[in-house]
Each structure stands twice: as C-alpha cells, then as structure tokens.
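Example record for the data management plan.
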Amino acid sequence: MDDALVAYNAGRVDGAAGYRDPQIAEDPEVGADYRIGVLDGRIAAFHLIKEIRRILGVEGSLFEGPDDVTGA
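Corresponding structural encoding:
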C-alpha cells in the first residue's frame, strides 16, 4: 500500500509539471497508481491555470492563430 501511495504522489507531482516517466508508468506493480497520479496532477494544473485566467479577467484564447515558425 505504501508503494502505491508513493507512486501516486510521484505521478501527481510529475503530472502537474507536465512530465510522465515511462519507466514508472510501465511498472507492473505501481504503474497504474502512477498513471492515475499523473492524470490527477494534469487536471490540478489545468484548474490552477483556469482560476488564474479567471482572476486576471482573461477571456478567449491567448493566441489568434498558430505560431508562424517559418518567418514568412
């Protein structure tokens, strides 16, 4: 049980940072707990960004169109 909680917490931290460790995610014992943690971390990061945008009064997209990387 302790390994599952540690894996979940590591996944939550990684998910909030936008990272996923494929080695831990594929582990047969704790991989599922890690993957759930990653998902929860990404959802938490999304909600944080959404709340910051609401507080700042940002509406709509921050970008008018796709980035022009060709310089044309």
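Summary line stored alongside the record: The chain has a mean pLDDT of 89.
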